UniProtKB/TrEMBL annotation:
The lineage of its organism: Eukaryota, Metazoa, Chordata, Craniata, Vertebrata. PANTHER family: IGLON FAMILY MEMBER 5, IGLON FAMILY OF IMMUNOGLOBULIN SUPERFAMILY-RELATED. Residues 45-134 form the Ig-like domain. This is Ig-like domain-containing protein. It holds the Pfam family I-set. Coiled coil: none annotated. It comes from the Eukaryota. SUPFAM superfamilies: Immunoglobulin (SSF48726).
């Protein structure tokens, strides 16, 4: 959709969606037109695009997945609640693919349950996301309490806002 007259095409404030092939066509009215394609690559820091909490049963397998888009491609690191890097062992393995990192649990034990953070990094920056590996049903009680606290906080905030408006 970009058209330019002259020998340069300036794309200011380029977005990653504009990374594609561009075609330059020259003609001088004497010789037949000439054309050349140029691939424009837009570098950008990692953006995590998909992750979610995962229920896991004891003794079974489970997978935590972290997807990230980045140019140049991201490298991945996993951390556990105590912020130590997660390392491969006989029940836990990290598998990195082009745009995804998987944390594979082959035999879930009590020690595996908890919060994990995925970091996606390249030379332009980083992004991170946290997710829970939890026993099925373990989060139901927490969610109800969280919603009740949110409703109570919202009521206090609305009441405070109403009092302030009345005073003004």
């Amino acid at each position: 959709g970009l058209v330019s007259e002259g020998e340069f095409l300036d794309i200011t404030e380029i977005k990653r969606q504009q990374a594609e092939d561009y075609e330059c066509i020259t003609h001088n009215g004497v010789a037949p037109p000439d054309q050349q394609k140029v691939r424009v690559t837009v570098n950008y820091p990692p953006m995590i695009t998909d992750m979610k909490n995962m229920p896991a049963n004891l003794g079974k397998t489970a997978i935590l997945r972290c997807d990230a888009m980045a140019v140049p491609p991201a490298t991945f690191e996993w951390y556990r609640e105590d912020h130590r890097p997660v390392e491969n062992d006989n029940t836990l393995r990290i598998k990195n693919e082009k745009t995804r990192s998987l944390l594979l649990f082959t035999n879930v034990t009590e020690k595996h349950f908890g919060n994990y953070t995925c970091f996606a990094l390249n030379r332009l920056g980083s992004s991170n996301a946290s997710m829970l590996l939890f026993r099925p049903g373990a989060l139901q009680g927490r969610g109800a309490g969280l919603h009740a606290r949110m409703r109570a906080s919202l009521c206090v905030w609305i009441s405070l806002a109403a009092v302030l408006l009345v005073k003004v």
